Structures are given as structure tokens and as C-alpha cells.
Amino acid sequence: MRRTVDIAPGVRLWSEARGPAEAPPLLLIMGAATSALGWPEEFVDALATRHRVIRYDHRDTGRSTRAYESRPYRVADLAEDALAVLDAHGAARAHVVGLSLGGLLTQLLLADHPERLLSATLLGTCALSEHPLTGPDGTETAAADLPGIDPRVLEMWARPAPDHGPEAELDRRVAHWRLLSGDELPFHAEELRERERRDIEHAGRHDVTTAHGRADASGLLRTAELARNTVPTLVVEATAEPVFPPPHARHLAQVVAGARLVVMPGIGHALPRECLRPLADAILEHTGACFSPPRPFPNVLNRRTG
Predict the structure, then answer these.
(1) What is the distance between the alpha carbons of residues 250 and 140, in angstroms, rounded to a whole number?
(2) What whole-number percentage of the chain has pLDDT above 90?
């Protein structure tokens, strides 16, 4: 089932739901500059065996409104978009899975709207916390001193992306995903090319958006709120992660109260075919263990989204 969500005058998000209507809802929040189609179909289908899986295009991606140039927004506003999508699909509470930027937005939901979450799963992201990382020997590392982004990725991000047509853009995207995938698992270039070709067809355009990188990222820290978290949270550590390399995931699992860490060997900042079933199984185990009877959440369907 596909649905558009009006979040502000002239700003509309594309979304879809898959799976049994009566199943517990699970919201997928994708990373920056990536549409809902960044979630591989096999992965979505696996989650939809037990959940009503909802995914959506962020502002400035896919079929959602290209809004930033006329209506600049904050990164924090994108977390409110996720709530608007849940409202539109009639979901008072949901399991939420966030990747990269989606992981940051999920942390904002954990901190600011915990009553809307049944559980959270965080992938390929860093902690919105200033608490240091504590090592096995008790030594502390300041959050600001954790490893940075792979220089090869930074160098590619610094390059302009001129428009030389759809095929050249596909070449650029495949090269980008090759770097993001890390160096441990085989890279399936043709699969990624076809996924990106479908994304271009879905959006009806191939130009690159930089909106999320320009959005105001101030005011995101939630150190105290995450330390008080009560929502069951799973943190996935990808051993070949080039954007937020180990030990970022372990730091995240420490600063989000009650979080549990699972290690996925070989995975980078992408979702290769080798990880889809194990990752889906880990999420389904996590969400299955978090079942609780629904609690009243008055007026959620009357939430203003315009």
C-alpha cells in the first residue's frame, strides 16, 4: 500500500507499507540522500513476514518533494517527518530501524518521543552523546576522539558530481557504494547498478541532492536522554564500516541505556546480499523479544502533519 504524507504546505513524502495489516508496524529510516529503495527488496520482504513494514522517501529523495532550496530545514525536522509517516499509516507505536542518518534520526525519536517506539535498531551511525567510550581495561576515550571517516570516502564526498547523464551517474553511484561497502566482502557491482537504476526510475530524475548535507545539524546531542533510555535497543556493529568504524557501535551501545550489541562480520556502510538474511533475522529476534500489549496513545491519528 502506497501513501503520500503532507508534512507542510507544498511538502509531500512518498511512503509504502508491506506485510500483514494486523502485524506490528516496523518503520525503516534510510540514510542521507537515499530514497526508500535503498532498503533491498529481499530485506524488506524478510521483515514483512512478521511486520507491517513501512518505508518512505526523505525530503529531497525519491518521489518526495525537493524541498530544501525553497524551504530549508533542520536535520531534526527529518525525525518529525518519521512521526508524520507513522501517523499517516495509523501506527501509534512502531519498531524503528535506522541506517546512517536514519540511525541519528532514530536516536532523536528515542530521546524525544520514546512513547512512539516499540523498539529501535541502529545501524551504521554514531552516538548523539558526549559520554566517552569506556574500554575493557577501564580507560576512557572522548567521543570526539573516536576514529573518523575513511579518507577515501571523504575525498569522494568532496568531489563535485557534475551531470553527465544517467549512465555516468550510475557509474558514480556504483563507485561510491564500492567505497562504502568496505574491503571484507565481495562487491556485487551489477546488483548495485540495477538497484540504483531502479532508484532513478522511481525518482524520475538522476541528479544528485546535497540537501541533507547542508541541513542545519545543530542541537542534535541527546546525552542525558539516551542515558535514560527505556526502549529496547539493538546496535549493529559492522566490522568493515568506513564511515563510523569500530568502536563507534560499541560506544553507541554504551551510551544508550539498556542497548544490546550484535556484531555483523564483513559488513560496511551498505547492505550487501550476504548480510540481508542474518541482519533480518537479528532484527526479527530483537522485535520478537520486545512484544508488549499496545498502550493507549490518545489523539495520535489527529496529529497535525500539515
Answers:
(1) 13
(2) 92
Q: Mean pLDDT throughout 29-43?
A: 97
Question: Quick one: cell of 249?
Answer: 557501535
Asked if residue 264 lies in contact with residue 279, where contact means CB atoms within 8 angstroms, the answer is yes
Beta carbons of 270 and 30 less than 8 angstroms apart: no
CA distance to 98, 120, 139, per residue, from 292 (Å): 21, 14, 38
For residue 23, name the pLDDT band (cuts at 50, 70, 90). Answer: very high
Q: Determine the straight-line distance between the first and last CA of the chain, rounded to whole angstroms.
A: 21
Cα(86)–Cα(257) distance, rounded to whole angstroms? 25
Q: Which amino acid belongs to residue 262?
A: V
The C-alpha cell at 287 is: 522485535
Q: Which of 6-10, 158-162, 276-280 has the lowest mean pLDDT?
A: 158-162
DSSP H stretches of helix in the chain: 41-47, 75-88, 101-112, 151-158, 166-180, 189-203, 211-214, 223-227, 248-255, 273-289
HEC secondary structure over 2-58: EEEEEEECCEEEEEEEECCCCCCEEEEECCCCCCHHHCCHHHHHHHCCCCEEEEECC
Closest by CA to 91, choosing from 22, 187, 178, 172, is 22
Give the DSSP letter of residue 73: -
DSSP-derived 3-state class of residue 78 = helix
Look-up: residue for cell 551501545? 253
115: which residues sit within 8 A by CB, 6+ positions away? 93, 295, 297
Cell numbers 529496547 label which residue?
A: 232
* Residue 124 backbone zone (phi > 0: left; psi -120 to 50: alpha; other: beta): left
Nearest alpha carbon to residue 222 among 106, 85, 59, 140: 106
Cell numbers that stand for 279 in this block: 541482519
pLDDT at position 162 is 86
Give kind and range of the element (H or E) at residue 238: strand 233-238
